[in-house]
Structures are given as structure tokens and as C-alpha cells.
Design brief:
Blueprint lengths: L9 E7 L5 E10 L13 E2 L3 E2 L8 E8 L6 E8 L3 E7 L8 E2 L11 H24 L17 H19 L4
Antiparallel strand pairs: 1-2, 1-7, 2-5, 3-8, 4-7, 5-6
Helix pairs in contact: 1-2
């Protein structure tokens, strides 16, 4: 049970906001949507393809990081994609380019509440550490390096960890 995710991959998406502004973000997708080819075969989300969430029955959520233009701070967001988006790049956990990504269910489930609380505390601590590290490694001011291609992308890691807490909350809402 749960929402399948692309968290095992790094994705660069071009997303559109409600005002028509286009942004490139490093993101993870959370969805039960399953893109298919014309013959009905599952393809996953293919690099170079544009997807309209209206064409799927299941909602498509994304966890991503961006630089707030007003504060200059790195911020993460978890939102439902409602406008078309394009998959620009995808890499696997080893950094190898891949042609498509199929979100997979997270199978790390437990009914041990104390274990879940411990894991969430570790995720919060790692998120805090990564955010501090990202702030320290951005000497050029707001947004320096976010849209560049160099170095490990701690923003992606922070977005995954932030999205993990939201996904946990989504999974446990009906379990009381």
C-alpha cells in the first residue's frame, strides 16, 4: 500500500505555474499514474516527453526544491501537479542517465510506531543538516548553483527527505 515514487532516481522537470511561468526543478514524482504507449504498454515517465496531469485518473505529486525569489532561501515544496510538465533529465542512484522512470511503491513499511518515530527523527535531523550544508555552500547569493550542473545536488536529497515526511503523513491518515 502507498503512493509509488521516483525517489530512487533524480529527475529534472520543467514545470509551469498557474500564471504560465516555466521553471526547471530537481524533483521526485509521487503517483499511481502509469504512462503508456499507444499499444497500452507501460512506459513510465520518458525523458523528453511532456505530460498533462489531466490525462491521468490518479493525481501526480512532486517534491522539489527551489530558491525563494523574495527571501533568497532554498525552500522545498510538495504539491500536486495540475499543469503540463516535461521530464528533461533522469538519472539512477549511481548517476547514470536513464530514458524513463517508473515510480515504484515504497516497501519499507512497519507497524512498529517507535521505529517509525525513530526513522522520522533521523529524517528530520538529516534534512536540517542538508539545509545547513546547502546554505553554507551557496556563497554567491540567492540561487547560486541551484540551476547549475556542478557538484552533488543536496537540494534533491533535501526534497526527498521533506517529501518523505509528507508521504508518511499521507499513508498514516487512515490507519487510526
Amino acid at each position: 500500500m502507498g503512493i509509488p515514487t521516483s525517489a530512487g532516481f533524480s529527475l529534472r522537470l520543467e514545470i509551469t505555474d498557474g500564471s504560465g511561468g516555466m521553471y526547471q526543478v530537481d524533483a521526485e514524482i509521487y503517483t499511481n499514474a502509469n504512462p503508456q504507449d499507444d499499444a497500452g504498454n507501460p512506459t513510465g515517465f520518458v525523458v523528453g516527453e511532456t505530460y498533462d496531469p489531466d490525462n491521468f485518473d490518479a493525481p501526480i505529486y512532486a517534491s522539489y526544491e527551489y530558491v525563494d525569489t523574495e527571501s533568497g532561501e532554498r525552500t522545498t515544496d510538495f504539491t500536486q501537479l495540475v499543469e503540463p510538465f516535461t521530464v528533461l533529465e533522469a538519472t539512477d542512484s549511481d548517476g547514470n542517465a536513464v530514458d524513463n522512470v517508473s515510480p515504484e511503491p515504497n516497501i519499507n513499511q512497519t507497524s512498529d510506531v517507535s521505529k517509525l518515530e525513530e526513522e522520522l527523527a533521523q529524517i528530520r535531523e538529516e534534512k536540517r543538516r542538508l539545509q545547513e550544508e546547502a546554505q553554507e555552500s551557496t556563497p554567491g547569493g540567492a540561487g547560486a548553483g541551484f540551476f547549475g550542473g556542478g557538484g552533488p545536488n543536496t537540494g534533491v536529497i533535501a526534497a526527498v527527505l521533506g517529501g518523505g515526511g509528507v508521504v508518511y503523513a499521507l499513508f498514516t491518515q487512515g490507519d487510526s
